[in-house]
Amino acid sequence: MNRFFVLFFGISLVSCASSNAVSPLFGVKNATVILETNNDMPLEPVKPKTEDKAVVLLNQLFNSDEANKKTVLVINNESDCDFTMMILGGKSYTVPVAAKKTESIVVDQGEYVMRSEVCQSPYLAKKTLSENTQVSIKYSVVKSPEKEIAAIQ
């Protein structure tokens, strides 16, 4: 199962990028671009939050220490709606998940109540997280002759 997580994160984290704080200014007759930099910025580049998250997730996936009390939770949103997953337990976490996207978080091991509203339908689950876990949220509309029934799987 951990090989799946490693492969999944390796592929999804390839697209991490960083940005520079340089703004183009136009105003020269021959339309060349003059680059203006902000002198108040630190000389060392600051790592974007995405890179920090990727490092923490990969370190946790490769951590084989038995004393480690953390685990990776992957939330896969297969619905057409954005939602925010609230993970409530000894420590609480909030994870926004976009439609058709996957989000990950490193959490402390333990029992959690996962609560959200997916496409205006409530989602509530109790999970014991003791190892790396993936949760897939699928929202489907089942049509019957009497009425439409929505279900979260």
Automatic annotation (TrEMBL):
InterPro entries: DUF6759
PROSITE patterns assigned to the protein according to its UniProt record, in alphabetical order: PROKAR_LIPOPROTEIN (PS51257)
Signal keyword on record: yes
Keywords: Signal
Domain DUF6759 residue range list: 50-139
Pfam (any one): DUF6759
Signal peptide start and end residues: 1-21
Keyword check for Signal: yes
Protein name: DUF6759 domain-containing protein
Species whose genome carries this gene: Epilithonimonas ginsengisoli
